[in-house]
Amino acid sequence: MSETDVHGEAVDWESEDEDSDDSEEEEEEYTSPSQPPSSSNFDKDRHLVYLQMMYELLPHHYQSQEINRLTLAHFIISGLHFLGATDRVDKDVVAKWVLSFQAFPSNRASLKEGEFYGFYGSRSSQFPIDENGDLTHNNSHLASTYCALAILKVIGHDLSTIDSESLLLSMKNLQQDDGSFMPTHTGGETDLRFVYCAAAISDMLGDWSGMDKEKAKNYILNCQSYDGGFGLIPGSESHGGGTYCAIASLRLMGFIGADLLSNDSSSSILDPSLLLNWSLQRQASDGGFQGRTNKRSDTCYAFWIGAVLKLIGGDAFIDKIALRQFLLSCQSKYGGFSKYPGALPDLYHSYYGYTAFSFLEEPGLSPLCPELGLPLLTALGI
């Protein structure tokens, strides 16, 4: 997976579903028929062991994810926070490591030359400066910047120590005329994922000077489909990831309120009842949520769709008992969560499994801030 994914991992939301459609045999190879019956309880102790192991040493299977190392660290460290175990993290070491990934302009004039000075995703995407002190290859990325700031907030680091002025001034360079964002200054896609990253970054830094919110709002609304959901780009099929990015961004930017459904829909910038209907239809017969129509249920969509329903005030309509049972069927005996029942766990689906259980108010888990996908107290700066 490239860094164009919002939260890293080898899943580009719907593109992985598309790949799986091409061959059911691939799914069969990935599924373990010997997987034991699912537990009836959220196994917090096993999840702690799983994340602690990942914190200390990533398995070799993650070598292909090297470019997303900051993203993987976000899943681990923020996951530990949801489990109430941030004491297992050396916060000073983590802060120093994360801050070492920020790109800096050689001078003030560089901020107007089109590049973005955020955070790199890993050492492999971080090139040294030349003999003149200039960055010849600046690969800092919006998604990596979101993850970097998320980690720093989770460990309680003071974000005022970051060069946010350079970051936000240069982030303006990434916004396109139609309101969308590129993730990096050259060669990137433009879609809702990076509008969301820009909005989340602005919210975490408490400064909206790095984006034109009105243009971003218009782009988001142009991505809404006839069925009420949102595609990643205008005219594309509605799906869970794009819909989350749209609704969370509008909430962060202040264009929709805390309970969209209870307000007068005639004054809303979108049709909340149509959005509610599309979102609720994503809960499948097995209790899980699918990302698109006629797709298989997937652990991560319990967050992407569940958070949308939470943000618009429609979460009371979710069959939470059935959803919990589906998630437990994806809980691994090794700790962590898999994408599907019977598959092996991975950090991406594990993290969104934890956020989903937090959303379901599992005892012992930190409450969720749905618009940022982070622990609530972290999002509030507490």
UniProtKB/TrEMBL annotation:
Ranges of compositional bias, category Basic and acidic residues: 1-10
Gene Ontology cellular component? CAAX-protein geranylgeranyltransferase complex
Q: Please list the cofactors this protein needs.
A: Mg(2+); Zn(2+)
Q: Where is the Prenyltransferase alpha-alpha toroid domain?
A: 42-372
- EC no. given is 2.5.1.59
Q: Which Pfam families match?
A: Prenyltrans (PF00432)
Q: Which family does it belong to?
A: Belongs to the protein prenyltransferase subunit beta family.
The name this protein goes by in its record: Geranylgeranyl transferase type-1 subunit beta
Native source species:
Brassica oleracea var. oleracea
| Lineage, broadest ranks | Eukaryota, Viridiplantae, Streptophyta, Embryophyta, Tracheophyta
